[in-house]
Amino acid sequence: MSDVFNLLLLLALVAIVAAWLKLSAARDRAVLEARRQCEQHGLQLLDETVGLRALRLRRVDGLLRVERCYGFEVSIDGHDREPCRLWMLGNSLSGLSLPVIELQPHETLANRTDNVVPLRPRRIDRLN
Q: Which Pfam families does the entry mention (predicted)?
């Protein structure tokens, strides 16, 4: 009886290690995708890492698949931290949530001759 118990314990351990390796590889792909999206949108990926936030089932072509949500932080101007989310379905990006950048009114942008878009100062809400 102990041989069967040892075999089941070994199989459970192998399954846990295999799941951990698969999730680690998926996390590495999410880090690469977050880095690529930050470069594309002119943001700085802070801490060069993502963290698994949620798992959900999503129906794709009639099949239920697991969609992973990763959270990470970016900086717009180097002085702030903004939360972002990235949804991965298998190896592909299925959703992205980035911070909103508030631009100055159109009238002031029309008179500019360079290609720099100025940002409004951030409003700090304080509880007093």
A: DUF3301
- Rounded to whole angstroms, the Cα distance separating 122 from 13 reads 50
**CA pair distance 73, 85, nearest whole angstrom:** 8
Alpha-carbon span 13 to 66, nearest angstrom: 23
Cβ-contact 72, 51 below 8 angstroms = yes
C-alpha 35/C-alpha 43 separation (Å) is: 9
Q: What are phi and psi of 108, to 5 degrees?
A: -75, -25
Q: What is the pTM of this model?
A: 0.69
Burial of 84: CB neighbours in 10 Å, binned 0-12, 13-18, 19+: buried
- Residue recorded with tokens 């989310």: 85
Residue 111: pLDDT over 90: no
One-letter amino acid identity for 96? L
